[in-house]
Amino acid sequence: MTGTPSPAPASTPSRPLRVAVAGASGRMGRMLIEALRASDDCVLAGALDVPSSPGIGSDATAFLGHASGVAITADIAAGLKNADVLIDFTRPEGTLAHLAVCCELGVKAVVGTTGFTDAQKAEIAVFAQRTAIVMAPNMSVGVNVTLKLLQMAAKAMATGYDIEIIEAHHRHKVDAPSGTALKMGEVIAEAMGRDLKECGVYAREGVTGERDPSSIGFATIRGGDIVGDHTVLFAGIGERIEITHKSSSRSTYAQGSLRAVRFLAGHKTGMFDMFDVLGLQ
Ligand SMILES: NC(=O)C1=CN([C@@H]2O[C@H](COP(=O)(O)OP(=O)(O)OC[C@H]3O[C@@H](n4cnc5c(N)ncnc54)[C@H](OP(=O)(O)O)[C@@H]3O)[C@@H](O)[C@H]2O)C=CC1
Ligand SMILES: O=C(O)C1=N[C@H](C(=O)O)C[C@H](O)C1
């Protein structure tokens, strides 16, 4: 929990939770729309995309060969007007524009977008004073459990082990390192009493000198259709540990996002993450 929550009594919803999806024509947008169609307790209630998207005006589930009656729109207020919760996997500037309207309309939000600056994260924290937001760079159960394993490993290997984080993603990904890799770095640094802003090393080339033992290094691979691989290497003298998570389908991110939607039913305002949703705090 990273903000001030205002819990409302948790209750079993008597009607399906109405969910709008931003980035409806994107890789995650489509995965989310498919997950909503298969869900018993959540229903698609709005679909947003950028004005230049070829999907504008078409039915959001047309790609599934089905008509939902929900058209993809670039009008944010129109796309949100029937929604309880927005799920946003877009770009930072899009997320901020969507959250501003969520606050006006009393719509809660699940934010999976990555690549925010610190200033943009601070803006989101302000929005969370007006509506409830779950934000996490990775919605999968497996990655969040991996983060807990990393916390434990980092405490036990705070000295004598060099820490390197290697991530690989598909050729279309626009931000690097991945939000997940950065979160792994933050979790490890915090567990070891370090500050990632001071010890993160994001590039090496030429005569770099010897490795600073307090550093946490990042290496980024981009290629093909890799869904998302993350490895943290703890390299000591005489042994090394590698903790790896590999995603083989985006459905894990979509299912985690729906868990976050259900979690938000019990909250009116506040900033939460997937540790809150999954009870891993
Ligand atoms: N938290 C998690 O578990 C996960 C997070 N992600 C993150 O989600 C984000 C989206 O990933 P992915 O679905 O692969 O990306 P895509 O590029 O496939 O989809 C992004 C969608 O957002 C739209 N979009 C682009 N710019 C804007 C904008 N300024 N405002 C509103 N909408 C916009 C795109 O439209 P158009 O294509 O027309 O530009 C597209 O429909 C990334 O930041 C990624 O890192 C991804 C997977 C899991
Ligand atoms: O862009 C992606 O695809 C992914 N982005 C997220 C990130 O930046 O960590 C999560 C996942 O790795 C897939």
From TrEMBL:
Superkingdom to which the source organism belongs: Bacteria
Compartment(s): Cytoplasm
Q: Does the keyword Amino-acid biosynthesis apply?
A: yes
Active-site residues annotated for this sequence: H169 (proton donor/acceptor), K173 (proton donor)
UniProt-listed Pfam families: DapB_C (PF05173), DapB_N (PF01113)
List the keywords (alphabetical).
Amino-acid biosynthesis, Cytoplasm, Diaminopimelate biosynthesis, Lysine biosynthesis, NAD, NADP, Oxidoreductase
Which part of the chain is the Dihydrodipicolinate reductase C-terminal domain? 142-278
Which reaction does this enzyme catalyse, per its entry?
Answer: (S)-2,3,4,5-tetrahydrodipicolinate + NADP(+) + H2O = (2S,4S)-4-hydroxy-2,3,4,5-tetrahydrodipicolinate + NADPH + H(+); (S)-2,3,4,5-tetrahydrodipicolinate + NAD(+) + H2O = (2S,4S)-4-hydroxy-2,3,4,5-tetrahydrodipicolinate + NADH + H(+)
Q: In which pathway does it act?
A: Amino-acid biosynthesis; L-lysine biosynthesis via DAP pathway; (S)-tetrahydrodipicolinate from L-aspartate: step 4/4
Provide the GO MF annotations for this entry: 4-hydroxy-tetrahydrodipicolinate reductase
- The entry marks the following residues as binding NAD(+), namely G23, A24, S25, G26, R27, M28, G112, T113, T114, A136, P137, N138, M139
Q: Where is the Dihydrodipicolinate reductase N-terminal domain?
A: 18-139
**Residues engaged in binding (S)-2,3,4,5-tetrahydrodipicolinate:** H170, G179, T180
Q: What is its main location?
A: cytoplasm
> What SUPFAM superfamilies does its record include?
Glyceraldehyde-3-phosphate dehydrogenase-like, C-terminal domain (SSF55347), NAD(P)-binding Rossmann-fold domains (SSF51735)
The family this protein is said to belong to: Belongs to the DapB family.
Tell me what this protein is called.
Answer: 4-hydroxy-tetrahydrodipicolinate reductase
* Organism, scientific name: Acidovorax facilis
Lineage runs: Bacteria, Pseudomonadati, Pseudomonadota, Betaproteobacteria, Burkholderiales
Q: Which gene encodes it?
A: dapB
